[in-house]
Amino acid sequence: MRKGQMLMKTLADLKRDAKSGKIRLELVERFGKTGDEIPERLRGVREVAGVNTVAINLRNGRGDAILRYRVHAA
Predict the structure, then answer these.
(1) Total domain count for the chain?
(2) Is 4 inside any structural domain?
């Protein structure tokens, strides 16, 4: 893969990588807002606390937060 190309993964791949501890996640867009428009308490790279069928749980400074996702068919 060349520099600048993105690797396409499935949702199952993302969950598997999150569960293994290979990746950390960062909120980059929230309701169309980016950068400093995102509340400070939500910014930053987070470690994965756990994974289940409908959520990836992220660790934050005050405990755990939950990232829930939905998949919509195109």
Answers:
(1) 1
(2) no
Residue 51 counted as domain residue = yes
What gap in Å lies between CA 24 and CA 45, rounded to an integer? 6
pTM of this structure: 0.64
| CA distances for 40 relative to 18, 35, 45, 53, angstroms | 23, 9, 12, 28
pLDDT in tens, 27-56: 888 888 899 998 888 888 888 888 888 788
3-32 pLDDT tens trace: 566 666 788 888 888 889 888 888 888 888
Q: Would residue 1 count as lying in a domain?
A: no
The boundaries of the domain holding residue 28 are 11-68
